[in-house]
């Protein structure tokens, strides 16, 4: 078994971030590993099909990235303060960007939340975690996330 020295923790800045970060930090402390925290902002290229000026979309995307970077800084300070690591913001299709970053950074494991959606919700929203699990070359720890209404 390859030692785990770098953990990728995928976050979405929702209420799910705390339980996911708790697992990632616990693992990092136990293994002496570094944590790379990744947030993937949704890609807005599909809106180029509408009659929205590309400069407006580009400005909106820039605002999203700027906001995500501020949220990442807060997340690192609150959720990952006592482990070594870094925060990264990317834009695109979440499963693809998570897997690309894992490969690029040479991480040894991934920690990700799973909402456990079923039925129509699963069809509509898909499962980022499931796609990552099926295609990952490294172990993936999924943290079950239940909404407060569940």
TrEMBL record:
Keywords: ATP-binding, Cytoplasm, Nucleotide-binding. Residues 4-144 form the UspA domain. GO terms for molecular function: ATP binding. GO terms for cellular component: cytoplasm. SUPFAM superfamilies: Adenine nucleotide alpha hydrolases-like. It is found in: Cytoplasm. Pfam families: Usp (PF00582). Its main location: cytoplasm. It comes from the Bacteria. InterPro entries: Rossmann-like_a/b/a_fold (IPR014729), Universal_stress_UspA (IPR006015), UspA (IPR006016). Belongs to the universal stress protein A family. This is Universal stress protein. It comes from Oceanidesulfovibrio indonesiensis.
């Amino acid at each position: 078994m390859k030692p785990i020295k770098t953990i990728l923790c995928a976050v979405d800045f929702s209420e799910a971030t705390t339980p996911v970060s708790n697992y990632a930090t616990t693992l990092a402390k136990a293994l002496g590993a570094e944590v790379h925290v990744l947030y993937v902002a949704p890609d807005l290229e599909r809106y180029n099909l509408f009659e929205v000026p590309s400069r407006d979309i580009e400005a909106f995307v820039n605002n999203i990235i700027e906001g995500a970077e501020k949220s990442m800084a807060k997340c690192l300070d609150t959720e990952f303060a006592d482990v070594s690591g870094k925060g990264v913001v990317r834009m695109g299709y979440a499963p693809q960007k998570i897997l690309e970053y894992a490969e690029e950074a040479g991480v040894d494991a991934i920690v990700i939340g799973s909402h456990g959606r079923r039925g129509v919700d699963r069809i509509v929203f898909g499962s980022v975690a499931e796609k990552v699990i099926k295609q990952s070359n490294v172990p993936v720890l999924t943290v079950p996330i239940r909404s407060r209404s569940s």
